[in-house]
Design brief:
Chain lengths: ~280, ~450
């Protein structure tokens, strides 16, 4: 008999609490816009902050309120932009995905060191210490601040001590850009073909060649060779305008130190295949 | 009489016997001097009017000054022509503005420099002015302008002057030689300080690995009723301000406080000599004793070097570097800064030039912290270096501040004692810089 009382008592308590909850849900309900929820679901959810908002849900609110465009989430790329635009009933517009590119190929064999650095393994700290241990004042120090800051595991240090960007994983959010004390990472549109001058040194030719085998020595041979006139010298450094570059490769033939490379053949990224193998092994 | 030691500290390999018996020899006047405009803590100097490229200067002539109170003027250390004014490598890291003077080899003194007269006739204010005009800064290495330390705020009564003859940094013997060779000047400089501060007495603290210096200083101070010598236990960092004050006077400087909060002012023996020269001969601070040592130096020596002499010139005078030299340090091995090359000037705070060979330098791979607390035992200011360093590594600077990172005076005991070779001191220095930066905002 006692079991019946117990069941009845528990059932009654359950009923009372259930009613209370139902009333609370009705009277204290917080009005949320279902649109914000669905936008949030469409976003990558990395809270990287590349859009300029504190996180994904903050961004979703801003999109729903019409403060920003649907394609403002850089890591989400085209797909996310289409989904969000669909939810809002807008045109997505262009959301071509950007890609981080490291403008230095002076690895530990090609660029010399001024001294042995034995301190804290952090690019900012090393760069501040007597101007950095590399002979080149602009070159990559290879201590991996960009690797540590990347939310998408898209950067790792290659075997020659330079960061390697995984084209598939990189969303172009730009966190690595700000983490680099030497500011040698640039965000470029993904997929666009063309050539790049992979050097960031604005020093004069003589000191560049003393410090690094593959630095731009500002000889202007590429400027003269380019049939499209897409290359100009900016403060002792050749810069290729990707809009004008038609991938003819004349500049590569003329570049003596070998600073210019096709975008899909960046030397430090040559072991990108090995990277994919490593990642597959890690996830397995 | 043996003093009680402070808590913590380390016993490194001192290596002082190499140069301890070598008398200070004046170095040949260099052909060129590079005189940085920032050689002290505080506002950097600006070149004076008329000091520009091509201008002729006399030895001892004031060439740069600043309007800030915490600063000290800078003087030409040779007579000659100004060749260039521009950035040059600096021992503290980044290149800084410097005046480069080509010597005419005559070393003719500026005629305007005159002795200040009898000490009894000088007022405290006159002494302070004289010390500032002579460009005197703390020669122990911190280069704090001396006249500021001689001008305590009126509400703080200074009764004891503590003179630092501990020289706890391994390898260095500059202060040791100064005490042996210029004891009488030290006492005179000390009397000037006592007069400027209206202090009651003075204590000279010397570590017990320098018994000859203790004997000499005791002999010269015996005649002075208010000056005593305190024999200190040999332990690094015995010569650090707070440690020295604690063991010589028993007073404890509070966290975040200054020695003058407990009625004490602390000066180096070299500073006392510089003051003596300024008062007696009217000479500004243009040269200092530098210990050039380490297994990488062919002929180690204690040299009297002009401020602005290039380190490479000093090393050449000592027979150059050995082939297996791996590390060049300006200052002592514990607190000095490693340098990428020798193309930089000796400044007022340069107490040593140290060249270490591949046998001395241990380039170890860093290992994880094993929570052994050796750094905690070694820290003389009772911090927890491992935790501050960990906070610094994760950019948690507010947390580092809560752990009293600002009390750290960068003695390096934690890094020295760490079996995992974690660069603790460097991480704490980063935290300190970030905390100060955040406070300024």
């Amino acid at each position: 008999m006692i079991i019946v009382y117990a069941i009845a008592a528990l059932g009654l308590i359950g009923l009372i609490f259930g009613l209370l909850l139902a009333m609370a849900a009705r009277f204290f309900a917080v009005q949320t816009d279902p649109l914000i929820e669905s936008i949030k679901e469409a976003l990558p959810g990395a809270n990287c902050g590349a859009c300029g908002y504190a996180g994904c849900s903050n961004f979703a609110e801003a999109v729903a309120a019409g403060e920003v465009k649907a394609n403002a989430c850089i890591p989400g790329g085209n797909e996310t932009a289409q989904t969000i635009a669909g939810l809002l009933g807008q045109e997505a517009g262009d959301a071509s995905q950007p890609l981080a590119t490291v403008f230095c190929i002076g690895d530990c064999y090609k660029a010399s060191d001024r001294y042995i650095y034995d301190g804290v393994q952090d690019c900012t700290v090393a760069s501040d210490f007597v101007g950095g241990f590399k002979s080149c004042a602009s070159g990559c120090l290879g201590l991996g601040n960009c690797v540590r800051v990347c939310m998408f595991s898209a950067i790792r240090l290659g075997e020659h001590g330079l960061p390697v960007v995984d084209h598939d994983q990189c969303t172009g959010c730009g966190l690595c850009l700000t983490a680099c004390p030497r500011r040698i990472i640039q965000i470029l549109p993904k997929g666009k073909e063309g050539h790049l001058v992979l050097c960031s040194s604005h020093e004069r030719g003589k000191s560049v060649s003393a410090a690094c085998e593959v630095g731009c020595i500002a000889c202007k041979a590429c400027v003269k060779a380019c049939p499209q006139e897409a290359i100009e010298m900016v403060d002792n450094l050749a810069v290729i305008n990707l809009e004008k570059c038609d991938d003819c490769g004349e500049c590569v033939l003329k570049c003596k130190p070998g600073t210019i490379h096709r975008r899909d053949k960046i030397p430090s990224e040559a072991d990108a295949l090995a990277f994919a193998v490593v990642k597959a092994a890690e996830s397995a | 009489m043996s003093s009680v030691a402070f808590k913590g500290g380390i016993h490194p390999d001192y290596q002082k016997e190499v140069t301890a018996t070598l008398a200070v020899t004046p170095m040949k006047a260099p052909p060129v001097v590079v005189i940085p405009l920032k050689q002290h803590i505080g506002a950097p100097c600006e070149p004076l009017e008329g000091i520009k490229v091509g201008a002729r200067v006399k030895m001892g002539q004031k060439i740069a000054d600043s309007s800030g109170f915490v600063s000290a003027p800078i003087h030409a250390s040779v007579s000659g022509t100004i060749k260039e004014i521009g950035p040059y490598n600096h021992p503290l890291g980044r290149p800084a503005q410097a005046i480069i003077i080509e010597s005419d080899g005559e070393d003719s003194w500026d005629e305007q420099l005159k002795p200040a007269g009898d000490l009894n006739d000088l007022s405290a204010e006159e002494i302070r002015k004289l010390v500032r005009e002579a460009g005197i800064v703390g020669l122990g290495g911190a280069t704090f302008p001396t006249h500021v330390k001689l001008s305590p705020p009126p509400e703080k009564k200074i009764d004891i002057v503590v003179i630092n003859g501990a020289e706890c940094e391994p390898y260095l013997t500059a202060d040791h030689r100064v005490m042996l060779e210029k004891p009488e000047e030290i006492i005179f400089g000390l009397k000037v300080m006592i007069k400027a501060l209206n202090a009651e007495k003075a204590v000279i603290g010397i570590e017990d690995n320098k018994n000859d210096a203790i004997r000499v200083m005791e002999a010269v101070s015996a005649a002075e009723g208010n000056i005593s010598v305190s024999r200190l236990h040999t332990k690094y960092p015995q010569g650090a301000e707070k440690m020295l004050i604690q063991v010589t006077t028993g007073r404890k400087v509070p966290s975040g406080g200054l020695p003058l909060d407990v009625g004490i002012v602390n000066h180096n023996v070299g500073t006392a000599v510089a003051i003596a020269h300024a008062v007696r001969e009217g000479k500004p601070l243009i040269e200092r004793v530098v210990t050039v040592t380490g297994a990488g130096i062919n002929r180690p020596a204690n040299l009297l070097v002009r401020v602005g002499t290039l380190v490479s010139t000093v090393i050449d005078q000592c027979g150059g570097l050995r082939d297996n030299t791996l590390k060049l340090i300006v200052g002592g091995p514990m607190m000095g800064l490693a340098q990428p090359n020798a193309d930089l000037p000796v400044i007022k705070g340069t107490s040593g030039i140290l060249a270490l060979t591949d046998e001395d330098v241990y380039l170890a791979e860093r290992a994880p912290c094993i929570r052994c607390a050796k750094c905690v035992d070694a820290c003389p200011v009772t911090l927890i270096p491992a935790m501050i360093a960990q906070a610094a590594e994760h950019a948690l600077y507010a947390r580092a501040e809560k752990l009293h990172a600002l009390d750290c005076f960068e003695c390096g005991c934690c890094s020295y004692s760490c079996p995992s070779k974690i660069p603790l001191t460097q991480l704490i220095v980063i935290a300190k810089a970030e905390i100060t930066k955040a406070k300024k905002k």
